[in-house]
Specification:
By secondary structure, the chain is an all-alpha fold.
């Protein structure tokens, strides 16, 4: 049987410098993946570039977004003028049915109601900006919309103690002990992550006792999952 030629095998197998270059690329990608939690900066840049270029070339969509921003600002200002006086008034925007962050009665008191109402308007406007842009691929549209939604959720007023009435109420009732306990939990999580240890409480899950172990085989495999 004839041995394969260097062309058939690939020149990298015969070029140590090329092999070193490939290994350097793999190492760089591995470190980048670890730093970005597995999110590809290149993929995000492509998705946002696709969205931004098509949005910039859509004067009708831009005009619609400006009109919606002005209308939301006027609606919020009208509601704010009543709420700041302590007058009973209905919310000017309601959260989605699955959004339970602002259902507590404490969120309906001034100034926390003004904070979360403004956030919901801002969140709704960005949803309008990242959807319905003609020409953007469906995949890129989903990536942009999902990413923006996650970034907005990070800045939700419910995530910060000074803008969350429930946290402030707990702090007042516990003399700030909840902040000390949260800091201790954060320090413990950071310590475990640095040392590569399991998360707190993982020792309770013992194989064969609280975790079932059984034989199996892969019945479906694709680029996302393996189904056992």
């Amino acid at each position: 049987m004839k041995a394969p030629s260097a062309f058939e095998l690939g020149l990298e197998e015969f070029d140590p410098a090329a092999q070193m270059a490939l290994e350097a690329d793999r190492l760089a990608r591995a470190y980048a993946a670890r730093a970005t939690l597995g999110i590809s900066p290149a993929a995000l840049a492509l998705a946002f570039g696709d969205w931004w270029l098509h949005l910039a070339a859509s004067p009708g969509k831009l005009l619609e977004l400006q009109r919606k921003a002005a209308r939301k600002a006027l609606r919020y200002a009208s509601w704010w003028a009543q709420a700041v006086q302590g007058k009973p008034c209905a919310s000017c925007i309601e959260p989605l049915e699955q959004d339970t962050r602002f259902r507590s009665e404490a969120w309906q008191q001034w100034p926390f109601n003004a904070v979360y109402q403004g956030f919901l308007f801002w969140q709704q406007w960005w949803h309008n900006a990242t959807t319905g842009v003609h020409g953007v691929s469906a995949h890129h549209a989903h990536v942009v919309n999902f990413t923006v939604r996650q970034l907005l959720d990070i800045w939700s007023p419910s995530n910060f103690p000074w803008s969350n009435p429930e946290v402030l109420r707990a702090a007042a009732g516990q003399a700030g002990r909840n902040f000390a306990e949260g800091a201790a939990n954060f320090a413990d999580d950071w310590h475990r992550e640095t040392l590569g240890e399991c998360f707190a409480g993982a020792e309770a899950f013992v194989f064969g006792e609280r975790v079932v172990v059984m034989s199996g085989s892969v019945v479906l495999r694709n680029r996302l999952v393996e189904l056992i």
